[in-house]
TrEMBL record:
<keyword id="KW-1133">Transmembrane helix</keyword>
<protein>
    <submittedName>
        <fullName>Uncharacterized protein</fullName>
    </submittedName>
</protein>
<keyword id="KW-0472">Membrane</keyword>
<feature type="transmembrane region" description="Helical">
    <location>
        <begin position="20"/>
        <end position="38"/>
    </location>
</feature>
<keyword id="KW-0812">Transmembrane</keyword>
Amino acid sequence: MTPAGTPTDGADTAPPRRTALAVTSWLWVGLPLVYGLYELISKATQLFTD
């Protein structure tokens, strides 16, 4: 534990550029995943209903 006012190594905070990269990466993977799950559920309900 470091005393107040002592600089840390910065491991707990990411620079803004890296944060933007992480957000973009999650969206790049997450949006198609959510769309695919939506389509899967939609088609599965059609399969098991009249």
